[in-house]
Prior knowledge:
The chain is of the alpha+beta class.
Amino acid sequence: xxxxxxxxxxxxxxxxxxxxxxxxxxxxxxxxxxxxxxxxxxxxxxxxxxxxxxxxxxxxxxxxxxxxxxxxxxxxxxxxxxxxxxxxxxxxxxxxxxxxxxxxxxxxxxxxxxxxxxxxxxxxxxxxxxxxxxxxxxxxxxxxxxx
Length: 147
């Protein structure tokens, strides 16, 4: 595997992040949403860079001791290389150091691969959020991890 570097997401990364977002999700975040994330004082944002190209990213919000994993994606051409694992491990480790004791996220009910990925880190299903997603309309599975 080519070397992958994790670093803070910068404004100049947003076009590449947006391209991955649009390839990964049926209702992608906007450019403004990513700018908002990197400017929040309580957000943790990282990109994975491989061969000078952004291969993936993660956005997490930390409020008090709760970390909400907002977004995680890897470019389709870079999947199955452990990049999502690297990004999530980095987020979990770094946010634990800053006081996070509880992590949660939402994932589409139909996204079994993502659900299994998070279960591999110890996340467990805590409930459903009805009609959480659009394009297409779908429930979200709420997954949690206590430290």
